[in-house]
Amino acid sequence: MYRIITTDGRAKRGELTTVHGTIQTPVFMNVGTVGAIKGAVSTMDLHMIGTQVELSNTYHLHVRPGDTVIKKLGGLHRFMNWDRPILTDSGGFQVFSLTSLRKIKEEGVYFHSHIDGRKIFMGPEESMQIQSNLASTIAMAFDECAPYPADRNYMVNSVNRTTRWLKRCKDEMSRLNSLEDTINPHQLLFGINQGGTYEDIRTDHAKTIAEMELDGYAVGGLAVGETHAEMYHILDKVVPCLPQDKPTYLMGVGTPANILEGVDRGIDFFDCVYPSRNGRHGHVYTNHGKLNLFNARYELDDRPIEEECQCPACRNYSRAYIRHLLKAKEMLGMRLCVLHNLYFYNHLMEEIREAIEEHRYSAFKKAKLEGFLINDKK
């Protein structure tokens, strides 16, 4: 069940109650594609840095180790030793990202595994079955994330097919949740809005899926090449067309600035690989912009990555030491940067929730965005 605690402009402060715990929103989901955060981060670490939701990938877990293997081991929560909510994406993004390895048909998508080349078929029913085997808290509907740019005719056909697939997902999820051997019979289903940067296609699709009484709604197919201004414009138009009494998820977004702007437009859920990917390359987020710890200026810098930050890296180590680890290619350096970045994102969401509760979100957003520019201007 989702409820809005308070609003500040279009920003929502809510909570989603699930079988695996209550999610305080707005929330950033930490991305663990194959059931682990890249950078040697454990589920015990995730607890320590304030993670509410972990996100894993349906396609990748289906390919390896296999969703049937995970089901036999008690589901993904038990497999990875994580007792809080998990969201699994549907495999639909791989329709976009594995262009050279797939063929789209009405029944679904034919893949060649990126690991060993074996043939794989995934349609709406297969995606729901895999996610049911994984027993995640929230399952995403199977969709096509169309390429950017795509011509109008392609986009219309793609969105119409995504709508037909969504109906099939809903029917199959209902069937699976009724089976006796289903690990999580309370699995939630989020639908996905598509349409690229075509405002009318986006809003028409949003109105169509809003009538399907789903557990939540995502805006997909953004942050795939369009400008930030285009993305924000689409959110301005689309979010009001989605049910306001259901959580809204902006998929694959993004930077701290993107999150602040998304919250301001009514988004509840976010996910992105940026904090872990950038951390593995020595790029760390602070309230004064992003730092590249490989830079020589940090060689003798005995300060933490960020003063007053309570993450494990900042409580115990200096910029100089972490830079040394990175230069020496020691895994600890990468791990500390990832932990810091994920903590930064999770803590940012705590600050956002507090600002909305205190009805000062506009001023909070303005101050944060100005702070992020300090190091970026250097």
Automatic annotation (TrEMBL):
Annotated cofactor note: Binds 1 zinc ion per subunit.
Q: Which residues form the active site?
A: D89 (proton acceptor), D271 (nucleophile)
Q: Tell me one GO biological process term.
A: tRNA queuosine(34) biosynthetic process
What are the entry keywords? Glycosyltransferase, Metal-binding, Queuosine biosynthesis, Transferase, tRNA processing, Zinc
Q: Name one GO molecular function term.
A: tRNA-guanosine(34) queuine transglycosylase activity
Region annotation RNA binding: where it falls in the sequence? 252-258
Q: Which residues form the tRNA-guanine(15) transglycosylase-like domain?
A: 10-369
EC number(s) per UniProt? 2.4.2.29
The pathway this protein participates in, as annotated, is: tRNA modification; tRNA-queuosine biosynthesis
Among SUPFAM superfamilies, the record links this protein to: tRNA-guanine transglycosylase (SSF51713)
Reaction catalyzed: 7-aminomethyl-7-carbaguanine + guanosine(34) in tRNA = 7-aminomethyl-7-carbaguanosine(34) in tRNA + guanine
> Which prosthetic group or cofactor does it need?
Zn(2+)
Q: What does this protein do?
A: Catalyzes the base-exchange of a guanine (G) residue with the queuine precursor 7-aminomethyl-7-deazaguanine (PreQ1) at position 34 (anticodon wobble position) in tRNAs with GU(N) anticodons (tRNA-Asp, -Asn, -His and -Tyr). Catalysis occurs through a double-displacement mechanism. The nucleophile active site attacks the C1' of nucleotide 34 to detach the guanine base from the RNA, forming a covalent enzyme-RNA intermediate. The proton acceptor active site deprotonates the incoming PreQ1, allowing a nucleophilic attack on the C1' of the ribose to form the product.
| Database matches in HAMAP family | Q_tRNA_Tgt
Assembly and oligomerization: Homodimer. Within each dimer, one monomer is responsible for RNA recognition and catalysis, while the other monomer binds to the replacement base PreQ1.
Q: Could you tell me what this protein is called?
A: Queuine tRNA-ribosyltransferase
